[in-house]
Specification:
Order of helices and strands: HHHEEEEHEEHEHHH
Structural class: alpha+beta
Strand content: 25-35%
Radius of gyration: 19 Å
Strand order of the largest sheet: 2-1-5-6-7-4-3
Number of strands: 7
Helix content: 25-40%
Number of helices: 8
Amino acid sequence: MATLLPNLDNPFTQQFGHPNERVANKVKDVLPEPVKDFIRQSPFIVMATSNREGWCDASPKGGMPGFVKILDDQHLLIPDIAGNKLFQSYQNMLDNPRVGLVFFIPGCPDVARVNGKVTIVSTEEVKRLEVEAAVHNPDDRTVVLQGILIEVEEAYGHCPRALNFGRVWDVERIQANGTAQRIVNPGTKLPASQSGVPDA
């Protein structure tokens, strides 16, 4: 396992200072055991992609804990479950086969981050590797279309400051949000008074 030292000679470190040694040395070129353990417990990720021109997409993906399968120290497999059929991430990956992943565990303020190179694999290959659509609340579209095979280039844990700053897992806030009328679907379920379209 090699430590990947980030570029510390850049305009931002020159202006704001350098990271301490522990932070600078935490980025590895394979999956360290603590990152593996985190991935096995994670039911939710955000996957970031971009095309060669820099147009970006960040896509949420979820399943039962460990739905992202660890194949070995340097490979992950994400089952692609049928979704909205816009395929923004997939168009980006065909153009620029690299992704950034952030893994979350509900209630845990830490996250794990993985960056790597992507190969899109067939449904048959996903089945051969014994990966399934392991999700809560499945519906009639819960089928695996293909898979995202990731060759890990960088892996590391990220400190809890960001999620703590946002009080993301604050229980009282979560309970309040669950009953608040002001929270609406950001897509198609806006109230008629806001969307300009009658309720279906």
